[in-house]
């Protein structure tokens, strides 16, 4: 080890002692330690998740039994929005909108990527902390602030934003068009602007950290696939989030300062508005330029987590490590040039539709490679079916089921008829919603010991997984069929169309599964918080894993490793390698004399 | 009430299961059972079998859904000429999807079951195989190339319409919160110019009364179409985004304020023919069975029952557009060309409507003249402000 490294370590030892005198505030609240920030992200994300999922259960109940009244509506939504327990139509739209916003951004972007990027990047690359701990802290607190603003928006008098999570203007721009486009929408936009700032700070930090702070021997091709996924995700975030910010800013101008970026020729509430020359299609372009990569911002970290967990628990190297990296990069690149497939029938030039069909269907190729590589990794493995492993296998399953229907939606010809129907809802919930949630759960079960020093109860984990898996299919599989029957999404009730009367019993079945699945998430919540204090104390490396995070002490310390930083001698997937006594060879173990290096 | 009961049952079942696991956990305390919370051989066995069971569950769900709900989808019996092509592509994609889904899920879950962990076994150290990876990059690539080509061929046929040389019926579909209106181009088959700034009184579509092409335009609030003639729809919206969705015709296009969008198709089944088609007769019978049941329940409560349902083509709004988005619909009637002509003839043209209101029209035209200047200055004023 060079003298420089020694000096560095010495400094850190010093810092370490200094930090022991942390006050409650600097340790638990305004912490700059990446492990604490990860936990903050996770818990904030979980709370937002409970709210988001809870909302979906409410509107699922409305869809299944549109003519009934429920006391619970009245209790949760109040007399104004649910008089006598009957949900009003504008609050239905608000629930749909906020559910989408919270799940996509607050749970699956910040809660998933924020948690695991923060926890794992320094620990798996062998760094003391993020490149900038301070920026990291700001990033979390901006996320927290944006969550608070989003929650506050639920309580304004004119109601929360209700133009759908895609907030297409003019609906989102004109309070005359829908009550939720008043203060609720303003707060929504403010919250998202703060959120984007937070996300950018986080992403920049992740990229810089991965590039600069890898420990000795940790070349890019020795990085665990988790890190590759987080790294590429951060890059997509940096490329696409600013575009959403610009769209939000322009929308704020249109709403508040009378500009006409997205608005033109509007007659509403009996009068002509002054807007002229703008185009809502421009907004759609700007929105989906983020909106589509966002799908992969949500999904890639989940796939990275799954790669790591499947390899560890299959006791086998991940199959096709380089192909996995290549497909992550290919997906990331393609994801930025396919946004138009959300807009086939938006009125844009049909020629563009052809181009976007082409690029969209190309994404199926790297996705297929990933799916097959996961399956091959399982082949002839020695599968340790821990809850994390079950969720990872579940992810591959829903990723395939949901991904395949993308072939239909990505095809402009077929999209004409299923666009904005429940077919779309079923597709994206499986491929990005459920898959990413499974990834998040898998990550939590796997790295819980690393985060909290205790183990989650595995039996509760098994119950959680199996009920969730059955319910997820129970909810979203039949949904394809009502979508193919032409049932549009975002309808408060389908009773206005006798044509859809025969779909109603399917809606009831879907809601039943949703309610059961939702209720069983309580098993997980209980397990999560109970185990934090009463769970079994974790060993240093409970899953017998190769990666660096399991070489650090269970107790969290600043700087992660008490002594020198670990040195890396091999790739992270030497599981069951012939010639070793154990079925895992941590990255810190030097290569044997005649040992063959697969990747360097 | 029944649903409330259901909720209570769900809650009780969850509590019961929670209690069971607690008991299960408690029985393990003190015994020498491994409490590491890491999967042991027993867990691997149980969950391995469950994985296999889950594969069967997926298959059963699929079969159940196809048998029970498979008659819902709009994948056959389309009412537009291009629909057959769309449906064929849909079937090809669907069959491909089901094929791939069946095989990959089988592999995934079977491997999870077959290779469940056992103490003493070692996994195969198998990290790479370029040949295999080539195979599963190239096969999807070829398959997709086929699908893309077919898709693009169909898309081009549908979307690119030669307006100059084809014999088209021009129809404007006009969207507003929360309803639809229609304007036929009349004898000259050219729609008069329109802008929301001309909206006034009976001129709800903002048609420019000064435009000679507008005089023979015909406004209606039901969409009638002749069978066998290609219809070019011009979509407008006066307030927010709407989407004109005509599922039976495999047609959909957004209505965008400030611009005109378009979509064309040829209806090839009259409403009557559709009603009498075997699939529709069955569907309507099923719907009416459900409605009769509901009516019975309603009558028992002393409320009025539901009317029986007869099929009509519909235009629905399929882009979130405000509180009553869920009920923004218009009836579409497809009839034989002569019936359609007769229906259209009964309607007054825009010119006639204006004449009937002779007095107001003169005033109105003045208003229109001043209106255009007023609009300009007001928008100018806004900019300055």
UniProtKB/TrEMBL annotation, chain A:
Keywords: Electron transport, Heme, Iron, Membrane, Metal-binding, Respiratory chain, Transmembrane, Transmembrane helix, Transport
Gene Ontology CC annotations of this record: membrane
PROSITE patterns named among the record's database cross-references: COX1 (PS50855), COX1_CUB (PS00077)
One of the record's GO molecular function terms: cytochrome-c oxidase activity
InterPro entries: Cyt_c_oxase-like_su1_dom (IPR023616), Cyt_c_oxase-like_su1_sf (IPR036927), Cyt_C_Oxase_1 (IPR000883), Cyt_c_Oxase_su1_BS (IPR023615)
Chain ranges of the Cytochrome oxidase subunit I profile domain: 24-569
Protein name from the UniProt record: Cytochrome-c oxidase
Annotated source species: Flavobacterium orientale
Automatic annotation (TrEMBL), chain B:
Cofactor note as given: Binds a copper A center.
Name of the protein this chain belongs to: Cytochrome c oxidase subunit 2
Example of a GO cellular component annotation carried by this entry: plasma membrane
One GO MF term: copper ion binding
Subcellular location as annotated: Cell membrane; Membrane
E.C. numbers: 7.1.1.9
Annotated ranges, domain Cytochrome oxidase subunit II transmembrane region profile: 66-162
Family statement drawn from the similarity comment of this UniProt entry: Belongs to the cytochrome c oxidase subunit 2 family.
Keyword RNA-binding attached: no
Keyword check for Acetylation: no
Family matches, as SUPFAM superfamilies: Cupredoxins (SSF49503), Cytochrome c oxidase subunit II-like, transmembrane region (SSF81464)
Cofactor: Cu cation
Keywords, comma-separated and alphabetical: Copper, Electron transport, Membrane, Metal-binding, Respiratory chain, Translocase, Transmembrane, Transmembrane helix, Transport
Family matches, as InterPro entries: CcO_II (IPR045187), CcO_II-like_C (IPR002429), Cupredoxin (IPR008972), Cyt_c_oxidase_su2_TM_dom (IPR011759), Cyt_c_oxidase_su2_TM_sf (IPR036257)
This protein's encoding gene: ctaC
TM region positions: 47-69, 89-111, 134-155
Membrane topology: Multi-pass membrane protein
One Gene Ontology term from the biological process aspect of the record: ATP synthesis coupled electron transport
Top-tier EC class: translocase
Pfam family, one: COX2_TM
